[in-house]
Write the structure tokens for this entry.
Amino acid sequence: MAETTAPVRGPGAATGPGPRVVYFSQDGPVADVYRSHLPAGWRFAALRDRGDEREQLRLLADADVVVHTDTPISRRHVEAAPHLALVQRQGVGVDALDLPALRDHGVAVAICPDGTAAAVAEHTLMLMLAAGRHLLRLHEGVVGGSWPKWDYRNRSLGLHGALVGIVGFGRIGRAVARRLLAFGSELLVHRRGGAPLPGEWAGPHVQVCSTLEELFGRSDVVTLHCPLLPETRGMVDGRLLGLMKADAVLVNTARGALVIEDDLVEALRCSRPAAAGLDVLATEPPPGGSPLLTLPNVVLTPHTGAGTKQTQIVKARAVLANIARMWAGESLENRVL
């Protein structure tokens, strides 16, 4: 997103001690990365118990900046933070933020795309291969002593020569596409509003689908890379899933609520699609009775697509640099509010 031209000035801008920064998630290794890169004079705190609202409100009472990961920020949180000037996302999605409340209180919001695309793209391909080639079943077979060398060969899906449908073609969708082309895949792309592809993507190995129905019906693999908006919530339903090939794979590293999970469970029980690789779920973590936890044709990871050591360092530096801009009264990068 374009840099805003309106500066945001914190209460200590350009003079006095540094900002009071609250890492609005569980204290631990990621918070320690921020501590290790924190400029002199800045104050930093993280949640000891990310589920304790009293602690959240206590830390927000003195916060100039919130570094936001996943813990939802509500109007109650915003009203408890009289000094808050900036909510700086560690990632790019803003669906866990009460944007109207932040707007009402004049709090700026910025995202951090740095490092996300490469890490999520790698994770996406990992899930495609793990689900399509039955990695978990093969592993279980080997450690269980059955050596299933031939059991899955005629029903494993590789990426070379596969037709992969990409829903959403922003930074992450394009990063996935570049890696898939290196694997020898053919690509189908769907963009909201039918936006054309940039000229660099013109070529015989990339096609545009005008409808989701066409993409889901033709693809060997469908991978989701669009934001969670009112018009995309629940867009992947039983009707679309029913169009998928019997040996196809669905991958979601975007947002869980893009998919109606009850419909996905039913579709997976009927092996249409044959498998799914999911890094995101409608409820995170999932309830103990979720069928997704027991289906044999699902590979699950706990919303860790961007979670690499390299990415955390890149993000910490970019996040702190943007906070420094705000504190100096300069224009924010990647401001969305």
About this structure: Residues 309-327 form the longest helix (19 residues).
